[in-house]
Specification:
alpha+beta, two-stranded antiparallel ribbon, 9 helices, 19% strand
């Protein structure tokens, strides 16, 4: 059985959630934010990430404003696209945060968002959704653009795509299932080493050669 987060770990993931929801909800074109996964079910622990589904009015424009809000609120250490899903949806790892507490975010039109909420299925898998924000003011893209400038696309080169695959697969390795394994220093040291290595300039330069 997975142990639920202790107070210190809970405050870390919960803080990230609150900061991001607050920043995103300031954009009027963001109509609804739902979490799913372990955060939504109350089963999050120190290995958990944050999964968000975001409904955007005119998503081809508003999603980039939302992405800018994410990046300005939490500096991004690394970004990886979802397979077959356009930017700016994807995985965001943040600087100075646990690498396990990454953000997985998908932007939808209001119609597509409603369809997911009604079906309770995403990617062929049942999900439990928890409302995080519902907009109560009209969407105003002009006002949103005055609040923030749209984010830029991330240039995903072949070498960075390959690197991203290696990086993602590292964190997909089976996580410890009991307290003894979770305290195993070998696992924790390996995790810290991987995260530190991914931040080093030498690591990125070598990846481009």
């Amino acid at each position: 059985m997975r142990a639920v987060l202790g107070n210190s770990q809970e405050s870390g993931l919960e803080r990230i959630r609150r900061e991001l929801v607050a920043a995103l909800s300031a954009i009027t074109s963001v109509r609804k934010i739902d979490s799913f996964g372990s955060v939504a079910t109350g089963c999050a622990d120190q290995w958990s990430d944050l999964d968000l589904l975001i409904s955007c009015e005119v998503p081809e424009r508003a999603a980039w404003l939302a992405a800018a809000a994410i990046r300005s609120t939490k500096p991004v250490a690394f970004y990886r696209m979802f397979t077959g899903v356009a930017q700016p949806s994807g995985r965001y790892w943040f600087c100075n945060e646990s690498p396990f507490h990454r953000l997985d975010v998908t932007f939808h039109s209001p119609e597509a968002h409603v369809a997911v909420c009604r079906s309770g299925v995403r990617g062929g898998h049942p999900i439990h959704l928890r409302p995080e924000h519902v907009a109560h003011v009209p969407a105003d893209l002009s006002a949103d653009r005055r609040l923030t400038s749209p984010a830029s696309r991330v240039d995903v080169t072949p070498s960075r795509r390959k690197l991203g695959g290696c990086f993602t697969n590292t964190w997909r390795q089976p996580k410890p299932n009991n307290v003894a394994e979770r305290r195993n220093e070998t696992f924790l040291t390996r995790a810290r080493h991987c995260w530190t290595l991914s931040h080093s300039r030498r690591f990125w330069l070598e990846a481009e050669t």
